[in-house]
Each structure stands twice: as C-alpha cells, then as structure tokens.
Amino acid sequence: MSVHPLxxxxxxxxxxxxxxxxxxxxxxxxxxxTGMGWDNICPVDGSRIGRVPEGGRAEVDAAVAAAAAAxxxxxxxxxVTERTDLLAExxxxxxxxxxxxxxxxCLDTGKPMSLAAHIDIPRGAANFKMFTDVAKTIATExxxxxxxxxxxxLNYALRRPRGVIAVISPWNLPLxxxxxxxxxxxxxxxxxxVKPSEETPLTATLLGEVMNAVxxxxxxxxxxxxxxxxxxGEFLTQHPRVNGITFTGETRTGEAIMRQxxxxxxxxSFELGGKNAALVFADCDLDKAVEGTLRSAFSNCGQVxxxxxxxxxxxxxxxxxxARLKAGAxxxxxxxxxxxxxxxxxxxxxxxxxxxxxxxxxxxxxGATVVMGGGVPPMPDDLANGNWxxxxxxxxxxxxxxxxxxxxxxxxxxxxxxxxxxEAVRLANATPYGLAAAVWTExxxxxxxxxxxxxxxxxxxxxxxxxxxxxxxxxAKASGIGREGGVHSLxxxxxxxxxxxxx
Length: 503
Ligand code: NAD
Ligand code: 6OD
Fold this sequence. Notes:
Strand order of the largest sheet: 14-15-16-13-12-18-19
Structural class: alpha/beta
Bound molecules: nicotinamide-adenine-dinucleotide, (2E,4E)-2-amino-6-oxohexa-2,4-dienoic acid
Distance between the termini: 75 Å
Number of strands: 22
CATH architecture of the largest domain: 3-Layer(aba) Sandwich
C-alpha cells in the first residue's frame, strides 16, 4: 500500500507524531506481550498508517495496578494547586504539539483538517484547562442542625477522588471525547486507564508523550489498546480494582458495559447514541436554520452523536427549506483532509460504510423520495479505496421507517413537514433516545415553550453544538446515564463523605 500523503505533508523529521500505536502503562510505551494486533487503516484511501497492539489481561492488569499505585504515590499527595498546575501544563503541551495531534487525528479518522483544527484539537486542550478551574473552586455543602441538648451539630461534605477510572471512548471525536473524561478525572485527583476505540489509537498514544514531557507522575494516565468484547475493553470494565467506568459509545455497548460493571457494583457514567431532531418553524431565520442544519446533519460525515437525522419543518417553508438544504449539501466536496476545499470526509471504516449504505438502500425500499445522494460518490483513483458515501436527504418516509427511528451515524437526514407546534413536539419526542434537539424560531416565547417540552439532555435554540463546558452534558432516556461538565462532573468523579460533628 502507498504512503498516505498526510505523512508526506511535512518531512517526517519535523513530525514527531507516532505512526505505530503503543500502550502507555506506568509511564512507559510498550507493545505488550500478546503479540496480537492489527493494521491501522486510513479511511481516506485505505493506506496503512501503522500497527496497533492488542492488549490482553496482562496489559490491563499492569495498567490498573499502575493506576492504583499512583493514587498512593506523589499524585495522591499533591495539593489541588500542584495537580491543576500540572494539568494546565498538559493543556499547554497539547497546544505546543498541535500539528502532531492534528495530523494523528486526521490520519485515524480522515476528517477534514479544517474541522479538526477548529474543534477536535482545541477542545482536547480546553478540556484540561476548564476542569482545572472547576477543581480549584469546589464548594462544599454544610448543614447546621439542632440537637435535643441544644448544642447542635454541623454537617459538612468531603469529596474524595473515586479512584481508578476506566475510560472507554469512541472513534468519532477521539481526542475530544477521551479528554472530556480524562480532564475531570485527573483534575479531581483520580487516575485513569483509557481504552480508546480500536479505529483511532493515535491521539491517546500521543497524549502519553505529553504526560511524560510535563512530568505527570507514572501511572496517573495509562492507555491500553484493544477491542471491546473478550478483549481489553471487557477486561478493563470487569477489573475488580476499577472504581468507576465512564463510557461514550453506542447504547447497545452501554448495555454490555453495564452488565460488566455489575461485578463489584461499580458506578457508570454513559454518553450513548441518539436520533436527534431539528424543529424548524416558519418564523425562523431561514439562512441560519439551513446553515445550522447543514452542519448538524453533515459535519464529521454525520458521525456526531448530537447530529440531526430527523428534520421537522413547518409546512409553509418546507419546499424552500428542502431546496436550500439540498443546495448546501450538494456543495460539500469530498476530499483529502489536508485539502482546504474539502467539505466532507469519509466514514470511519468499510464496516461502517456498509452499514450506512444498507440504510440508504432500506430508505428506498421503504418508500423514501431521495432528494439527493443515496450512494457512493465518484472519486479519483487515489481515493477509490476510501470509505466514501454521499450526503443524503430523504423525504416521504413513514414515521416508523427504519431510517426515521434508528441511529444511522452517517451524513443523512429525513425531512418531514408538520402543521402545528404540538405535532412537532410529539414527533421529536417519539424516540427511545433523548440526547439533543435543535429548535429554529425567531419567537422567544415559542423557543422557551418548545425547549421545555423536549425530552433531551441538551436543547439548542437557533444554534447547534455551541458548547459552554461548564454546563451539564449528557443524554436522557436511552441516550445516557448521568451528566458531565463543569461541577456536574463532581457527581461521577468524586465520592462524597458526610461528616457530622456534634458540637
Ligand atoms: P462503540 O459502542 O462501538 O464503541 C465505543 C468503545 O467501546 C470502543 O472503544 C469499543 O472498543 C468499546 N467497547 C465495545 N464493546 C465493549 C465491551 N463489551 N466492553 C468494553 N468496551 C467495549 O461506539 P463507536 O462505534 O465507537 O461510536 C459511535 C457511537 O457512539 C454512536 O452510537 C454514537 O451516538 C455514540 N456516541 C455518543 C456520544 C454522546 O456524547 N452521547 C458521543 C460520541 C459517540
Ligand atoms: O462537546 C462535548 O463535550 C461532547 N461530549 C460532545 C459529544 C459529541 C458526540 O459525538
């Protein structure tokens, strides 16, 4: 296979990013002892990036033991200020090696560099910065109570780190979603063992170099690569010395991990799948609604958990909205990550491409009108082995059609008209999922009224994926358990002890 052009973008002597992934255990990079692994394949053209080692029980045991030992070492004795100063250095370290992270993320995922440079990599650093601020300003609750002798008692809450946290992360926003968990876990004094997605091993590995460069104590941040079932993911989440499991990924995988977490009654924090709706009212600013829906349906090739796959549009503007959405989607040019003209990248894998194309076929079988797309775009020879699919828009499907009810996780959406606000709310909520919604209206009263009715963890009004990291993030219904972000992360990453002092 040929070398991917990203590797040639700058001389390798100037790029210190690794191409072969490695476990990072107790401050050391290692290939582990299993001798097993797989080739990491670039989604853009099928070229081989490097090798990924598969961790087994021995690697997981070693990583968990290192993480447990680090809790009793210098890390466990640091003051909050010492700890957060170090994590501020981690954020600065990501910024310093911005190009290495960017290159590694785009090799693994194939996403446009323009996207990763604005979202994924800056958020990797921001996730550490923000939680250092949270950790430094934790307040505690305190209750005075009367007692029969009149002297009274004082209750106050102590918060301790939960301990060793297993972080299981997905492939769609690898650095962003992994650091969204590692940032608060470490800021609040825990240690972590990360099992990144098998599709995207590079940025988690690279972060190990940053951790060593800034002098993070050994064993605080560990990475073991591997698959899920019967591999590192399952071994890690079943490990008796793991004190909590935080997971982002598919709802079905969450069910499996919940069963694994039941051994020893370990708490879980889950960010899961979605089938998110956008509600576009006739009183919206149409330019903004179209632009926002283009981003929410097609960014990252539709591989965003918060993405919109169901669009409900008030009937008087339905035809105009569909025509403009189509024009915008048609302008998204597929191409290489490093090409500034690229508007859409490939899907993560051949397997995922097959899944999305099967949904495209099923939409037609179930009676969709294909407004645009529905297949594989013609690509030049050097990109022919990439996992390309066309941005796709459907109308005319029944409310119970597979593409209207099931998460596809591809660049596609179904657009359906509605006549009343009540109907729009009912349609949006008619799903077992409850992650996100977007409401497009210029009426303040309607915006508040509809947002209040949305059965979701996050409702955007006249925007999408506008993130203030202090806010609660997570899913309702089958889209998750718990909330992370700002002080909400304290719930999962710390354990409260109440102290009751009789005065
Ligand atoms: P996935 O569930 O297939 O895999 C996620 C991770 O879980 C991977 O690291 C995988 O190896 C691991 N895993 C799989 N089985 C396991 C097991 N039995 N035990 C332990 N680990 C196991 O998800 P994915 O395909 O990587 O990501 C896409 C999915 O993630 C979509 O459903 C998307 O909606 C969801 N997602 C949700 C959010 C959110 O914030 N709610 C964010 C991003 C992605
Ligand atoms: O912005 C975040 O913190 C977050 N967890 C985003 C999730 C995106 C899902 O693909």
